[in-house]
């Protein structure tokens, strides 16, 4: 059975991006400009994600996106992103091997944690206690 090598190749847009980055890095000014641009773009995305972490939503995903942007130019970010991916995969595999009761318990603890973070962030940001507000409306 022959394997089609075209299916194993990177998509063409990745080739174009790699070629463009190589051309930019070939020039000393381009190399510095690229590092600064990637550094600032990654910083902006990481800060935005960090601000969104206490709120419900994809805060950590946005932080990882910023780390991915940094990984374009910085080897430390590439290593940290690889470390994060490996540990996330290990955690996911471990959870999927557990019984439904353990997964349910993990999910409940996760919901309690997120609820506590939302409650605390609303209380500290807007001075509104969600628990008393809900109890007053019942």
TrEMBL record:
This is TIGR02611 family protein. The chain crosses the membrane at residues 32-53, 59-81, 102-126. The keyword DNA damage does not apply. Keywords: Membrane, Transmembrane, Transmembrane helix.
């Amino acid at each position: 059975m022959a394997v089609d090598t075209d299916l194993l190749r990177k998509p063409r847009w990745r080739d174009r991006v790699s070629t463009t980055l190589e051309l930019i890095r070939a020039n000393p000014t381009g190399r510095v400009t690229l590092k600064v641009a990637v550094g600032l773009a990654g910083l902006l995305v990481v800060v935005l994600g960090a601000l969104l972490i206490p709120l419900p939503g994809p805060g950590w995903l946005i932080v990882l996106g910023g780390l991915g942007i940094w990984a374009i130019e910085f080897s430390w970010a590439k290593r940290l992103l690889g470390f994060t991916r490996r540990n996330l995969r290990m955690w996911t595999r471990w959870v999927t091997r557990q019984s439904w009761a353990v997964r349910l318990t993990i999910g409940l603890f996760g919901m309690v944690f997120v609820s506590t973070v939302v409650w605390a962030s609303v209380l500290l940001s807007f001075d509104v206690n969600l628990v008393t507000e809900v109890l007053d409306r019942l």
